[in-house]
Amino acid sequence: MAPAASPQPVRVVLRVRPFLPSEAASATAPCASLLGGHPGGEVTVQLKDQHTSRCEHYKLDAFFGQEDSVSEIFDREVSAVIPGIFEGINATVFAYGATGSGKTYTMQGTEDYPGLIPLAVSTVLALCTGTWGSVEVSYYEVYMERCYDLLEPKAKEIMALDDKDGNMQLKGLCWVPVRSMEEFQELYSIGVQRRKVAHTGLNDASSRSHAVLSLRVSTDAVKGKVNLIDLAGSEDNRRTFNEGIRLQESAKINQSLFALSNVISALNKNEHRIPYRESKLTRILQDSLGGSSHAVMIACLNPAEYQESVNTVSLAARSRHIGNFISSASKQETPKVKIDMEAKLREWLESKGKTRSIQRMDGLFSPVASKTPSSMSHKKHLASSRISGRAKTMDQDGGKIKKILFDQAVRVPDENLPRASTHNDVNENKALLPSVTPCKEEKPESCLRRALSPISSNRVSGKQQTSDTGNCPSFLEPKTPKETCQLVEKIPCATPLDKFHALGSALKETLVQQYLDFLNTANKEELQQLKGIGARRAEYILELREDSPRPFKSLADLENIGLSSKQIQDILRKTASGIFE
Question: Which pairing describes strands 197-198 and 7-9: parallel, antiparallel, or unpaired?
Fold first, then answer.
């Protein structure tokens, strides 16, 4: 058994960017400064308002002032998590702060002063030199709560879905192998140009989306990944003077960052429910905040904005208390025993004698319509009587039928065989195992093939069989009721409740089958009109139909488009209730 992984907190470092040329004339001193600390331990940071002399103190893991370069941040903080991805331990480095605080510069850098992303890629490629490891790159953005691949020529939306283990996966994301820094720089520059940026009142090139660059390293043994994230900055629209689409973008950015603060607050309080699904941003950071990867948060500050710095450092300081459970992919994990909760519930209901609750549970959880006990017993009684009658007939005419079916050398004269074309003979043999009529000489094996084929549930009349097959033998089968309700209606002892349950089961089967047929054949506009199916799910359904003509064969297949079993049941209930509106 592998030892239990100890929680490792998110490492939070602070970077204060230098004054811009436009700010240098009016600035006196940066609002953030280092009070004290010792190497390798936490530091105390002071935030002081130059106008009101208000002071705030926070404890963080490291402090980088205006004179420190981005390469120093990489050497002291980021480079330590890079070797772990070759052991299967994922890592995430993300820059957080208000608009204009230097996040994009910290992550991207310039040609002369590279940022954390180029430095990390260069280090990973250097470690892969001389080994069998391969490096792949993906680059995407979260814009207006939608994910777009920045390495695709056309703006292609990618869907965030959960796999069977509950980990988020991005369907349709492009992964490109890189072997040198020249290949990466060419690829990365294309993605940077496609990222959404715009002019605002505080920034000439303000990022309007959260950008995520992922490096995936594959070796013979394990796979590891590092995410380098440049978050869009929070904005005060009273200062940015945003209007129209800029105002909508700002609202989505602030909403996602507010969701991030809610997640951090819930983790600090050890709440049972962590609201990761409130935003695409928090879903992406789910593995980094309370998950199983190394996480480094770089809080970027504008030295001239005190209140924005207080908001940023306050959230960053709270993030230090979040523990991630780091485990190596090479360790043997204890197998998890899956508990069938439905079986345990059924066992408890049976012990209490709650038969009606068991029937309701069968109708709620089973994708196939359930049968009531009474209708099942009647059906078994009819089936046993039908089998006994068939066995009696086989005993009477068994030797003759065996010779006809399995010995091709035997030919029975036409006058000795009952004719299926006469009306009286057909009615006489409806409940008996049928005899045969001669086949054409060209297809002597068709008799044997038809005799050994499974009995069809939908019986065709003898006259129709004769006309369809020409001179081939016509096997008359006992007429089986097509619907459960028809079977129960013919039973004298069936109660009205039995008939009602049987009718409901048949209606449910029909509704489910029609619903699946609709998903397999409808176009995009028709799918969007269906309750629970939006534009994105409609597009995904069309993609599934390109791979398979009928991707939905049962209700369980609807989980492939992100619908849980509870959502499926709710959609069917709404669909059924809409019939009576």
Answer: unpaired
Kindly report the backbone phi and psi dihedral angles of residue 326, in degrees, each rounded to the nearest multiple of 5, phi listed first: -85, 130
Beta strands in 17-100 (DSSP E): 32-37, 43-48, 55-60, 62-64, 91-96
Neighbours of 183 (CB within 10 A): 15
Find the farthest-apart pair of alpha carbons in the chain and give their distance in angstroms, rounded.
118
Q: Could you write out the DSSP letters of every residue in 47-70?
A: EE-TTT--EEEEEESEEE-TT--H
Lowest mean pLDDT among 209-223, 380-394, 486-500, 562-576: 380-394
Contact in structure between 432 and 477 (CB atoms under 8 Å): no
CA–CA separation, 289 vs 293, rounded Å?
Answer: 8
How long is the chain? 581
Q: Report whether 312 contacts 17 (CB < 8 A).
A: no
User: Nearest CA to 277 among 534, 564, 543?
Assistant: 564
| Three-class SS state of 218 | strand
Residue 54 near residue 48 (C-beta atoms within 8 A): yes
CA distances from 368 to 156, 354, 365, 371 (A): 38, 21, 9, 10
- Helical spans, DSSP H, in 86-180: 103-108, 116-128
The three-state secondary structure class of 149 is strand
Average pLDDT over residues 329-349: 65
Query: Which residues, in sequence order, are CB contacts of 42 under 8 Å at separation 6+?
Result: 59, 60, 61
| Burial zone of 298 (CB within 10 Å; 0-12 exposed, 13-18 middle, 19+ buried) | buried
Nearest to 198 by CA among 155, 157, 247: 247
Pair type for strands 210-218 and 134-143? antiparallel
Quote the CA–CA distance of 229 and 195 in Å, as a whole number: 13
Q: Which residue has the higher pLDDT, 537 or 12?
A: 12
Q: Are 203 and 62 in contact (CB under 8 A)?
A: no
Question: Do 116 and 70 contact (CB within 8 A), yes or no?
Answer: yes
What residue type is 173 in one-letter code? L
pLDDT (tens digit, 9 = 90+) per residue, 438-493? 444 444 444 434 434 444 444 444 444 444 444 444 444 444 444 444 555 555 56
Label residue 374 by pLDDT band (50, 70, 90).
very low
What is the Cα–Cα distance from 32 to 317, expressed in whole angstroms? 14
